[in-house]
């Protein structure tokens, strides 16, 4: 189970995300990022990319994961619909995932926000429970 | 008074001090009037001033300008100088948008010349200067040229035919900071940078056509080519995706490096390394590449704006000259007086502008008598200001001053307040024509979302660290 919610922040924007396991948490964070960039329902999963990232700890891994997705969006002009984590090794600080989306098409897509950077600010990956389901939550602040 | 567990004392008419407590190595000092100080206590900015005071090798004070608000690591409006041997360099003290800055251009045109044509002029700029989310521009540079951009900044742009040598004299650092090393820039940052030269970006970046509506210091204004009614252009943008990526790359490296060097961080965004360390030097060299990229970017945009004026108003030479251009997200090695002796220190200015007084040789010869021009953009509805730096700023704030107004509403709050309103019409009714790629951006950037910049510049004048020279009002604006 996973969810992502956009939250308010004075100068920028944030996400509150939850996943019943760590892979779901990372997928939820990606879902939240995608929804900030465009209306995900308009994005077809035509192209797939394998994404591999490393991090010195879990927060660093999460920031690096979202930073990599931001980078792909900006440099390849891709909008994403979904992300599936295929491997997450917390101890080794390693994540592999498959993301699906398509190139930006001005006729069908509108870009909602330009995410400049993913920050470490207040990033607190913590065990919690959501509607009775145990899992992990995190807050991620993004520079727009 | 108290801020949590911290004491705060008022010192002088426009400054407050937080004496060192706990892990603070130096006091905090916030320049603000009473009214502004009350406002700034409402977000986390003061805590961030206190956090910066924890960093090793900090000299004097953890400083904050009157437009201070919450940021990543350092507050926006934060200034701090560090000893070169014992101190650290921290990307959070520069910002993601390295060398975000402001260029001011003057002209021989008056408000009456331009106002009847403002729509066409704004539309021309909108066409010639790409803006908005995810935009690349028509100017794509390959690896070799990108290295030249990183090394030579605005000088590269002039060599490529964008503007002239004359422009460079009125840019901070001559439009090119020494010590950039393109080898320290990652492939990711290069890829983000290669297609974005000559573009504005989005968010709070803009091009604004305006006019001088009030002169406060006639002699200084005359030196800058500013008189009542003079038409001006402000460009506010930075190093685009390239700078953001360099900051992101460095913060990642410094997460581990901070631990390695035993630097205790009250906040991960304050990740830092000793200035002389390999990591510290790598960041300095990469940051300078982004600094130069932003100088080049504004030089290209400035020239495109000249084309827009020629296209709209006819072939006459409107003498669009660079009054001055400043950086407000940067770290520099500068010589300052420390305990009465000149010494090189590393000054971080994040959302703060250099404001050197007349005694400094870095100021262009033609401004030596009046001090360094400082450009303070306000929101798109009200006004912007031109100031000059003072020698008092050199004594108190490492020659630094404010940079803008600062937000007072979140983007979501602003969008909520904008619902059902026709903001473009509201702005037109006040005489400002706005062209934006996104209505959502216009809502997020509406005047009410920002503090009143007049109160910020009044505070720095009261504190003696800058003097107000002129006020500019907007006629038209291009926003991303």
Descriptive notes:
The complex is a heterodimer of chains A (144) and B (480). By secondary structure, chain A is an alpha+beta fold. Chain A is 24% helix and 43% strand. The longest helix of chain A has 19 residues. Chain A is globular. The model of chain A has no long low-confidence stretch (mean pLDDT 93). Chain B is an alpha+beta fold. Helix content of chain B is 33%, strand content 26%. Chain B has 16 helices and 21 strands. In chain B, strands 9, 10, 11, 13, 17, 18, 20 and 21 form an 8-stranded mixed β-sheet that branches. A 7-stranded mixed β-sheet of chain B has the order 3-4-5-6-7-15-14, with helices on both faces. A two-stranded antiparallel ribbon of chain B has the order 1-2. In chain B, a hairpin with a 7-residue loop joins strand 17 and strand 18. In chain B, helix 4 crosses helix 11, helix 5 packs across helix 11 and helix 10 runs antiparallel to helix 11. Chain B is globular and about 60 Å long. Classes of the chains: A alpha+beta (144), B alpha+beta (480). Chains A and B meet through helix 2 and strand 6 of A and helix 8, helix 10 and helix 13 of B.
Sum up the structure in keywords.
heterodimer; A: 144 residues; alpha+beta; five-stranded antiparallel β-sheet; 2 helices; 8 strands; 24% helix; globular; B: 480 residues; eight-stranded mixed β-sheet; seven-stranded mixed β-sheet
What's a quick, concise take on this entry?
The complex is a heterodimer of chains A (144) and B (480). Chain A is α+β, with helices and mostly antiparallel strands. Chain A contains two helices and eight strands, in the order ββαβαβββββ.
Unreliable segments of chain A (pLDDT under 50, ≥5 consecutive)?
A: none
The biggest sheet of chain A, with number of strands, parallel, antiparallel or mixed sense and barrel status, is: 5 strands, antiparallel
Oligomer: heterodimer
Separation of termini of chain B?
42 Å
Distance between the termini of chain A: 28 Å
Helix tally of chain A equals 2
Q: Which class best fits the helix and strand makeup of chain A?
A: alpha+beta
Share of helical residues of chain A: 10-25%
DSSP summary: helix tally of chain B: 16
Low-pLDDT segments of chain B: none
Instruction: Give the SSE order of chain A as H and E letters.
Output: EEHEHEEEEE
Q: Biggest sheet of chain B: strands, sense, closure?
A: 8 strands, mixed
Q: Give Rg of chain B in angstroms.
A: 21 Å
Shape call of chain A: globular
Number of strands of chain B: 21
Shape of chain B: globular
Class derived from helix and strand content of chain B: alpha+beta
Radius of gyration of chain A: 14 Å
The largest inter-chain interface, given as chain pair and residues per side, is: A-B, 33 and 37 residues
């Amino acid at each position: 189970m996973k969810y992502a919610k956009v939250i308010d922040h004075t100068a920028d924007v944030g996400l509150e995300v939850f996943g019943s396991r760590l892979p779901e948490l990372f997928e939820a964070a990606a879902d939240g990022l995608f929804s900030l960039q465009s209306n995900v329902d308009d994005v077809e999963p035509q192209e797939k990319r394998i994404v591999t990232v490393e991090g010195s700890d879990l927060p660093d891994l999460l920031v690096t994961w979202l930073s990599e997705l931001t980078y792909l969006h900006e440099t390849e002009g891709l909008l994403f619909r979904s992300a599936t984590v295929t491997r997450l090794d917390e101890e080794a600080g390693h994540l592999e995932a498959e993301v699906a989306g398509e190139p930006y098409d001005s006729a069908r897509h509108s870009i909602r926000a330009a995410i400049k950077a993913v920050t470490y600010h207040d990033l607190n990956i913590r065990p919690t429970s959501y509607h009775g389901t145990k899992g992990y939550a995190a807050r991620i602040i993004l520079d727009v | 008074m108290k801020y949590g567990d911290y004491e705060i004392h008022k010192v002088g008419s426009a400054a407050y001090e937080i004496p060192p407590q706990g892990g603070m190595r130096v006091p905090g000092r916030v320049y603000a009037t009473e009214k502004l100080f009350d406002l700034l206590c409402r977000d986390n900015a003061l805590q961030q001033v206190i956090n910066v005071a924890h960093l090793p090798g900090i000299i004097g004070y953890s400083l904050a300008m009157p437009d201070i608000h919450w940021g990543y690591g350092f507050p926006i409006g934060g200034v701090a100088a560090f000893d070169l041997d014992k101190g650290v360099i921290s990307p959070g003290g520069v910002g993601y948008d390295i060398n975000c800055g402001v260029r001011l251009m003057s002209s021989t045109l008056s408000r009456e010349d331009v106002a009847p044509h403002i729509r066409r002029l704004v539309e021309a700029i909108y066409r010639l200067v790409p803006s908005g989310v995810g935009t690349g521009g028509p100017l794509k540079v390959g690896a070799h040229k990108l290295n030249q951009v990183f090394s030579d900044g605005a000088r590269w742009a002039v060599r490529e035919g964008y503007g002239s040598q004359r422009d460079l004299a009125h840019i901070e650092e001559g439009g090119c900071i020494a010590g950039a090393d393109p080898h320290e820039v990652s492939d990711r940052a290069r890829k983000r940078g290669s297609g974005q030269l000559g573009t504005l970006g989005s968010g709070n970046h803009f091009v604004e056509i305006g006019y001088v509506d009030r002169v406060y210091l006639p002699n200084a204004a005359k030196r800058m080519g500013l008189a009542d009614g003079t038409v001006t252009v402000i460009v506010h943008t930075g190093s685009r995706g390239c700078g953001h990526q360099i900051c992101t790359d460095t913060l990642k490296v410094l997460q581990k490096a901070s631990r390695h060097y035993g630097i205790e961080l009250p906040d991960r965004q304050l990740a830092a390394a000793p200035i002389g360390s390999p990591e510290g030097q790598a960041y300095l060299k990469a940051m300078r590449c982004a600094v130069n990229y932003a100088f080049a970017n504004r030089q290209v945009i400035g020239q495109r704006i000249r084309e827009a004026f020629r296209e709209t108003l006819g072939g006459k030479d409107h003498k669009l000259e660079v009054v001055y251009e400043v950086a407000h997200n940067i770290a520099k090695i500068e010589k300052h007086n420390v305990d009465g002796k000149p010494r090189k220190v590393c000054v971080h200015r994040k959302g703060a502008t250099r404001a050197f007084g007349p005694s400094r040789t870095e100021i262009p010869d033609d401004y030596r008598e009046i001090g360094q021009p400082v450009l303070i953009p306000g929101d798109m509805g009200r006004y912007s200001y031109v100031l000059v730096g003072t020698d008092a700023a050199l004594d108190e704030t490492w020659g630094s001053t404010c940079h803008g107004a600062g937000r007072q509403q979140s983007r979501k709050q602003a969008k909520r307040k904008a619902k059902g309103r026709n903001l473009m019409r509201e702005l037109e009714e006040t005489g400002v024509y706005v062209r934006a790629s996104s209505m959502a951006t216009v809502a997020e950037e509406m005047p009410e979302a920002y503090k009143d910049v007049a109160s910020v510049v009044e505070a720095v004048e009261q504190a003696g660290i800058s003097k107000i020279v002129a006020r500019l009002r907007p006629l038209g604006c291009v926003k991303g």
